[in-house]
Here is the input.
Amino acid sequence: MSLLTLDALTVIRGECPVVESASLTISPGEVVGLIGPNGAGKTTLMRAALGLLPHGGLSSLTQMPARNRAKHVAWLPQAREIAWPVAVETLVTLGRVPHLNAGQTPTAEDRAAVSHAIQTMDLTAFKDRAATQLSGGEQARVLIARALAQATPLILADEPVAGLDPGHQIATMEAFRALSRTGTSTLVSLHDLGLAARHCDRLILMDRGQIGADGPPETVLTQQHLRDTFGISAHLSRGEHGLIFQPLEVVRDD
Amino acid sequence: MTRTMSRALFPLLIALVAILFFVSLLTGPAGFGPGESLRALISGQGDAVTLVMREIRLPRAILGILVGLSLGMSGAALQGYLRNPLAEPGLIGVSGSAALGAVIALQTGIAASFALALPLAALTGALIATLLILALAGPRGGSLTLILAGIAISALASALLSLVLNLSPNPFAVSETIFWMLGSLSDRSFTHVWIALPFMAIGWALLLSLGRSLDALTLGEDAASALGIRLKHTRLTLIVGIAACVGAATAVAGAIGFVGLVVPHILRPFVGARPGRLMPASALGGAALVLAADIATRLILPERDLKLGVLMAIVGAPLFLHLIYKTRREGI
Here is the structure.
């Protein structure tokens, strides 16, 4: 059974389609990278899939009642909003909101999920600090921990590693990888194609609102796709350290 | 440390409100002793002391608590929803429209025709403002649309209020109106308590039901929505709840500002900044503040009828300026 099915998903803004007839399926246990240049429609695709935008076509997520959807999919928006100086642990506990009934206080299971998420994102030392007093990258990790604490079979993350140091970028991708072994899938938009190549099972390339390619990294990161979509050339090789991707230079259309 | 403070906070606030309630009962120009006053209140036989205690001071103290609870909770709820520590119910035009309704009732003489006319007119004003804001902000409008709609309604209410006073043929009614708008708890009866209480109780229940939604909104509207929070339902509940609270409070006490602004600011650190917990804390804090200020009006200038709204503004405005400065410095 798939965790997410999009069928001809279309989002129109004004006259022009921002996402045009996008179809894809995500199965359990996958780390799927969503790549594409700025304005290709990555964020719009994910928000529409969650039912946060009016859209045409079909998303399996919008068929669910809001509460069930929140137990099925966690959403990590690109805007890293933390409105109040709440403690890191309190913020991460917000991920348990879909699992709690009205007025219910967190159970032992909730607290375990929260402390596991805090450990995974290397935040134990910050647990009692006000989240707003942390650095940008640390706040990003707190918000990722919040999404992990939601303990859903599917995570949609919009550029979660932007602004993180290399160690925590890799740790985050490895956290998604570890989750995939237990059946949890992640759809993660990325600008760092090197990370995408190394840490994703599958890449989906978006180009001007349409899905241009969908498959294993080697079949998506071809010279032709890179030139047509990103306007760059790149080095891609598989060696003893796995897949290595390095962008080289801007290619001009003549 | 925060957790211990948080646990002790509610008993402390309740104790503070209880103490101020008794001080309010025992404060007044009649000058009865405390024992005599309380005896008259509980087992009096219709003499002057009993009359003063039961018909003047008791409703006044109860109204202080009700108005404070409503204004404090409304401010915390609105700030939580808008994620803006400088927001207050006056901002979305509910207070202004409630005042307009009341002023129209005073100026047209409807207020004198039957006892409940004034409060009902203020409630109607608050309700119209609520419906207008909902229509303006639309089904998918975000916080910004709500604020802009609120500013527009406030401006309109203020303009219409000026127009009513401008065209008033009766200078006595104008001065009565202006005095009413200053905000006060003096000369109130149990009639005021009974007209305000049902609306306030509905408002409290609606706002308190939003605790978890407001907590989730800490992460922004998108993330909250994906956590299963129904944003439209939250917004509707918030607006009706605030209209009920602020409309009823304005109806019985006139315009009293700064309670919903200052109290949440002071109490926020003691509840770990959680918007859901801040609501009941601010309600109790608001009750304490209104009771204390109302006691102060009787102690500072006992023979001049110092208005509660005026005192609150004089104390509240500088504190508010300080808070703006502090907020800017901390970059929150």
User: Anything to note?
Assistant: The mean pLDDT of chain A is 93.
